[in-house]
Amino acid sequence: MSLQAKIEDKSARVAIVGQGYVGLPLAVEFAQAGFRVTGLEVDGARVAALMRGESYISDVPSEVLQQVIQAERFTATSDVGVLAEQDVIVLCVPTPLRKSKDPDVSHIVAAAREVARGLRSGQLVVLESTTYPGTTEEVLLPMFEEGGLRAGHDFFLAFSPERIDPGNPTFRVKEIPKLVGGITPACTRVAAVFYRQIVSQVFELSSPTVAELSKLYENTFRSVNIALANELALICRHLGVSVWEVIEAAATKPFGFMAFSPGPGIGGHCIPVDPFYLSWKARLNGYEAKFIALADEINRTMPRFVLELVTDALNDAGKPVKGARILVLGVAYKRGVGDIRESPALEIIEELFRRGAQVQYVDPFVPTLTLPGHRLEAARMNRELLQWSDLALILTDHREFDYEAIVGHAPLVVDTRHATRGLTAPEGRIVRL
Ligand SMILES: NC(=O)c1ccc[n+]([C@@H]2O[C@H](COP(=O)([O-])OP(=O)(O)OC[C@H]3O[C@@H](n4cnc5c(N)ncnc54)[C@H](O)[C@@H]3O)[C@@H](O)[C@H]2O)c1
After folding, report:
1. Atom in ligand 1 nearest the alpha carbon of residue 93
2. 59 alpha carbon – ligand 1 mean position (Å)
3. pLDDT 10s digits, 15-45
4. Distance separating the N- and C-terminal Cα atoms of the chain
5. Mean pLDDT in residue range 214-223
6. Would you put residue 192 in left (φ > 0), alpha (ψ -120 to 50) or beta?
7. Which of 5, 128, 351, 406 has its CB 3.0 to 4.6 Å from that of 162, i.e. a possible disulfide?
């Protein structure tokens, strides 16, 4: 039976390597579509949690995980030996940056080494991790062909970028069109058939490099446009104009404009990281990317700008930062998720501690927070807590917060997300970015 036929009748066995924000939702999606899926994960604690039916990713409810486990459609393991038994292997491992901001593809290489060890005829391997253009062809292909098997003839290899937006209920795995670029047309075709089992729109591209580059362009586009909105916020501050009103006004144009929001800085595993995969590769090929460096520079000034807003607001109320009681609302890098990787809140809270402030935080998605020299537990939001504070600092606009109560009971509010839109308070009590 051909691989394509096994995929179409759902008898193909699927392994998803890396069970994080990307890998777990994908594994569950294929399991729900009727495949037998193995989640391969190096972190033993994660494997144990998954096998207990406990999800640690907010987009995957534990009940859904339990259903696919009970239906014997999903299992998790750390045993790389299972790879050789699979028909399709999808790599969803992390791609961080080194301290030097160069790409660190060591997780991809480590996972691919295990795949190469058990590679056999008839397997499809897809890389989903965001990475620099050329990774699939220059790094994976030679590793997989070393044993004598040929891509497009014996096995299939493709790149298909993950575009999931954690915490976004409108666009889940199913609703987000997939890009697929294979080493050969046969590789592209098989990978496209695979993704059509769970996604309604799949676009076939001419190569893995185009697919790798499109993903980097998408995220660089976000980074640059967020930086432009952030710079507009800095300009508006100097002009005494509301940046939010300006952006909302511009957004009434029905063509040629797309609204991006300023904020306390960028976070997560993608926007602060991915553009550097592109500029690194460009540099190796003799071109110095300019927008990427500038956008990063502007985005990284934002936590300092927020500290300036806090300091000025306290100063206007006759209080120094030292000893001030600051209630931070939201520490996740964006609304609706518990991801604190690269979150600007970390830098802001660390600096507030360094300046002698007392800090408590509330975040329905982040129960504890460890910073150098401090371990914080999320406080319970109530009127007393708001009244305890000298200043409430909104860093993440979680839907779970009662902004009316925040504005009603906190003596001072600094809002970096326009979460208090439409709410009013006596002069100077709400400071907006
Ligand atoms: N988080 C997002 O919103 C998002 C969106 C699109 C693309 N991506 C990209 O997807 C990739 C994965 O990101 P993520 O957010 O899911 O990361 P994550 O850290 O949440 O999950 C990765 C998982 O892989 C595991 N892992 C690492 N090496 C492994 C190995 N050799 N074998 C098995 N498991 C291994 C880790 O323990 C971890 O559980 C990255 O390249 C990222 O840039 C992420």
Report:
1. 24
2. 15
3. 999 999 999 999 999 999 999 999 999 999 9
4. 61
5. 98
6. alpha
7. 128
